[in-house]
Design brief:
Elements: H1 2-12, E1 24-29, H2 35-44, E2 49-55, H3 59-68, E3 73-75, H4 78-83, E4 89-92, H5 99-108, E5 112-115, H6 123-130, E6 143-145, H7 153-160, E7 167-177, H8 200-212, E8 218-226, E9 236-244, E10 250-259, E11 278-283, E12 286-288, E13 295-306, E14 316-327, E15 333-343, H9 362-374, H10 386-403
Parallel strand pairs: 1-2, 1-4, 2-3, 4-5, 5-6, 7-10
Antiparallel strand pairs: 7-11, 8-9, 9-10, 11-13, 12-13, 13-14, 14-15
Helix pairs in contact: 6-10
This protein binds NADPH dihydro-nicotinamide-adenine-dinucleotide phosphate and the ligand O=C1OC[C@@H](O)[C@H](O)[C@H]1O.
Residues 30-34, 38, 56-57, 61, 93-96, 98, 116-117, 146, 148, 186, 199 line the site of NADPH dihydro-nicotinamide-adenine-dinucleotide phosphate (NDP).
Length: 412
């Protein structure tokens, strides 16, 4: 508990080193709710990042945001901000449906771009954006889809426990209690490329793709729950989907942005319900060397993680191995036992010397790698490249297509 409080406190009030001469000067498009957590606060402890400017549709809103977060420059429009030659990088926390337009415009101005997830509205836009000819030129700007959880050591530790080829079944769940997001939130507006699959769903999809280390062959089922009557009927409040991978394994997601109590046939659904994001991965049964004559030894390994989304606060990785000794002749079970381990990681503990502190939030780890790329430093090696982002959107689209819903709108 003391460790948890210390992590939260230090993340909220981090040490603030003097900024370097060559610090990135970041401009934020929109006075977004997520800004303080995702970049403004993490930037305080990074000597090479200055949050230099913000723009909002309403300049008064931008001024209030700038004052609250000590941002020195306020621009009157998004365009004016990206035209500012003193700004070297743009952070885009706009509604999903505006990501493509503003990422493209920012890159064309030569700015590095940290682009909120999901990168864009659909796979056509992703392919157009991440295959932009200018991104293959020398000294091209850096473009990163901001999948912050991926950069945290706990997320990577979880993945390192998995033998990807051997995964038989994976289940990933992430939910948010009812009423956190109002029914007319940007997350539930089709024209802004909303939908639960686009929001929390993107994390579960990212994790499934990383668990199998590959793309699925087919989306085998997708069940979307429409928003309540009176709200956007092209957006889903919840989604359950299942895919099959080449190795025969199946993976499923269960994501809900307005989770209520699931009892008595939904009678209590109006009561909000809190669940920790979780993932469970089961390996196929494998034979391991057996020292006993006439016997064989098999193991089924299950790896689970609680709180893969924001592991910096708290998380648990559990590894359970079910061992069975059988007679080789008749396959009868001679003996069974279970071995359990629990692991956590708030900083890199693989002896590699990678940078990090136990109090660094996922967003701080992400910012470290973004700057490393811009500065052409090796860093932790964790990255989300353009092809990865394109495949994300393909898997998101597969949910809507399988359910017979329209993929999210967005022209190229
Ligand atoms: N990485 C993470 O942990 C998180 C990521 N996100 C992602 O960040 C993005 C923004 O989310 P969040 O901060 O919660 O969103 P907000 O509701 O705060 O909206 C962000 C900004 O969108 C701008 N905007 C522009 N056009 C519109 C419009 N037509 N309607 C409404 N807003 C508009 C507003 O800018 P202005 O100030 O100019 O009015 C607003 O400040 C999303 O892509 C989301 O998926 C969200 C939460 C967490
Ligand atoms: O990215 C996100 O992470 C946190 C959630 O609250 C939010 O819905 C989502 O956009």
């Amino acid at each position: 508990m003391a460790g948890l409080l210390k992590r939260i406190w230090t993340a909220a009030y981090p040490p603030e080193p003097v900024k370097a001469e060559d610090a990135l000067r970041v401009g934020i498009l929109g006075a977004a709710n997520i800004g303080p957590n995702s970049i403004i606060n993490p930037a305080k402890s990074h000597p090479q990042v200055i949050i230099a400017a913000v723009a909002a549709r309403d300049p008064k809103k931008a001024q209030a945001y700038a004052k609250k977060h000590s941002i020195p420059i306020v621009h009157n429009s998004y365009q004016e901000l990206i035209d500012d030659p003193s700004i070297t990088a743009i952070y885009i926390p706009l509604p999903n449906g505006l990501h493509y337009e503003w990422a493209l415009k920012s890159l064309q101005k030569g700015k590095h771009v940290l682009l909120e997830k999901p990168s864009v509205s659909n796979a056509s836009q992703a392919s157009a954006l991440f295959h932009l000819p200018l991104l293959s030129e020398p000294n091209t700007p850096v473009l990163l889809e901001a999948f912050h959880s991926l950069f945290h050591p706990a997320f990577q530790l979880f993945l390192s426990q998995i033998e990807k080829q051997n995964v038989e079944f994976a289940s990933v769940e992430s939910t948010s209690p009812k009423y956190i997001f109002p029914n007319d939130d940007i997350r539930f507006l089709y024209t802004l490329a909303g939908g639960t699959t686009m929001d929390f769903g993107t994390y579960t999809i990212l994790l499934l793709r990383n668990i199998f280390g590959d793309e699925p062959e087919e989306c085998v089922s997708a069940d979307l729950k429409k928003m309540p009557k009176g709200y956007d009927q092209n957006c889903e409040s919840a989604v359950q989907a299942k895919w099959r991978w080449k190795n025969g394994g199946t993976g499923q997601m269960d994501t809900d942005l307005s989770r209520g109590v699931r009892m008595w046939g939904g009678l209590l659904e109006w009561i909000p319900w809190v669940e920790i994001p979780r993932a469970v991965v089961r390996h196929k049964e494998v034979l391991v060397p057996c020292e006993e004559d006439g016997k064989e030894h098999s193991v089924v390994r299950t790896i689970s993680m609680l709180n893969f989304l924001l592991p910096m606060f708290w998380h648990r990785i559990r590894i359970v191995e079910e061992h069975t000794i059988r007679n080789t002749s008749n396959k009868k079970t001679a003996r069974k036992w279970t071995e359990k381990q629990t692991k956590t990681a708030y900083k890199w503990e693989d002896g590699s010397g990678k940078k990090g502190e136990v109090w660094w939030p996922t967003y701080r780890y992400q910012l470290e790698e973004f700057v490393n790329r811009v500065k052409k430093r090796e860093g932790s090696g964790i990255w989300m490249d353009g092809e990865d982002s394109i495949k994300q959107t393909q898997m998101i689209d597969s949910v809507y297509q399988k359910a017979g819903w329209p993929v999210r709108p967005g022209e190229v």
